[in-house]
Structure formats: C-alpha cells, structure tokens
Amino acid sequence: MHRYRFLLSVQWVILTLVAIALIPTMIRLGIWQHHRYEERTSRNNLVSSALHAKPVPVEQLSSPGHAVTRTEKYRTVTATGTFDTAREEVVRRRTNSDDEVGYHVLTPFVLSDGKVLLVNRGWIPADGAQTAFPKIPAPPAGRTTVTGRLMADETTAASGIKNVKDLPDRQIMLINSAQEAHRLGARVLGGYIEQIGPQTDSPEQISDPGSEDAPLNYAYMIQWWLFAAAVPFGWWSLVRREIRDREGAEEAEPTPQTPEETAPAAV
Questions:
Q1: Separation between Cα atoms, residue 16 and residue 19, nearest integer Å
Q2: 197, 158, 187, 199: which is closest to 175 by C-alpha?
Q3: pLDDT tens figures, 28-68
Q4: How far apart are alpha carbons 180 and 187 in whole angstroms?
Q5: Interval 71-109: pLDDT, tens
Q6: Exposure string (b/e) for 213-223, b if CB count within 10 Å is 16 or more?
Q7: Closest CA to 122 of 14, 207, 61, 51
Q8: Which of 8, 38, 135, 146 has its Cβ near the most Cβ atoms within 10 Å?
C-alpha cells in the first residue's frame, strides 16, 4: 500500500475532501433543478388550460374584494359595459414585446350593474419626461363588450416593482383593485383583465403569456447529476496518473554502484 501513501499529503487530503463535498452538492443542485422543472411544467399546464378554457362572464370568476387564484388567472372572460375614460390611468415603466419602455393603459369599465372592471387596454410608448399625462387612443364609445385574460392584483412582492408614491396625476406603478376601489369610490371586481378583444392597433395589446422553458431545467438536472457521477472517476484518474508519474520517476533514477564496479580495471 506504500504506493498510495501520497494520499496522506496535505495537497491530496484537500483535493479528496473537495471531491467528497462536491458530490452531494451537485446532487442537491440536480434535485433543485428537478423541483424547478416540476414547478414550471405545472405552471405551463395551468396557463395552457386557462387560455384554452371556454370564455365566461367575468362575474362568474370575480367579485368586489375577490383575490384571483392560480387556477383563475389567464382565464378568458367577457364583460359588457362602458369605458370610463375620464378616470383612466397609466401604469409606468411597462415594456412591449420589443422591450421598449412605456405605459399600460388602465381604463375603468362600468358594468350594467354599476360594478367596475379594471381593463388593461394595452401598451403605449412613453413620450418625454413622463411628468404629464400622455395622449391615449380612445376606446370604443358607448355600450360595448370586451374580452380579456383575467389577472391577479399586482403586488411588489410578486412583481418586484416598487410602489412609488407622489407620482404625476393619474400615473401608477401597480394595478391593484383595492386601491382603485378607494380611488374610484366604486365596487371594483378583484383583479383586472388584459384586453384581447375588440382588437386594436393602439394601444398595443399585450401578447399571450409565453410558456416557461421547463425542459431547460430538466437538462440542467441531468447535467448536475452527470457532474456528480464524474467526480469519483475524475478523482481516481488523478490518483492513477500520480501513481504512474511516481513509478516512472523511480525507474528513471540511476542504480547506485558498488566500489568494485566503480574501481579502475588493473593493467
């Protein structure tokens, strides 16, 4: 076993400990990626199911004070009423499909029974210093029917967007039905909708939510577990190379000669 004594050196002890620590770490990273894969797959399935569900009247899924659930989010809903453009607002720092910064147009939609549905009519570009209320294309006048994707109230925790105060008049950072109910003094349905019909060129309507790349997490999971499996093979390859190098060096050393072998021959 003397050929393995070098494993007790400080350098090899450290290398071995690092290798031992890497294996469970990589296994845990693979497990985490597996959880992410399952979460994203579940979310994709929920979104796809909601988008393909039959449209229903919005008041079947929402009511004043209602918190939109995961299974209700992205459901296609319809509503009939009148746009209240006098009290519409814009939501700052929103981007379109080309990552251009602008506003989302949030217009109260008054239903037949007096309740209010918040309608995100889409995106318009920002113009100038964003201190004045922008010019907004008008929605259809009079009584109309809209279709949209039901969305949950926005929060800083969920979106990462800070709810800045003291903004210019009729400009907000987050869409929140409770805050809008207080501002409007009306019974506002929980959540809001992203309008998809009637279709308009301006505001630019928000595109369907894309699916999250769950297969990428699955690939990362396999990758981490392959790395974990490769660590002991890599460590053993280094050990074998070290043994070969040491044995080669020993064979290359000259053999000590005896005095008789080194004495000059007699004449």
A1: 5
A2: 158
A3: 999 999 999 998 888 888 888 888 899 999 999 999 999 99
A4: 9
A5: 999 999 999 999 999 999 999 999 998 889 999 999 999
A6: ebeebbebbee
A7: 207
A8: 146
Cα separation of 42 and 35, whole Å?
11
Structure tokens at 29: 């990273």
Place of tokens 């519409």: 88
Q: Which amino acid is at 267?
A: V
Could you tell me the residue ranges of all domains in the chain?
Answer: 2-42+214-249, 55-197
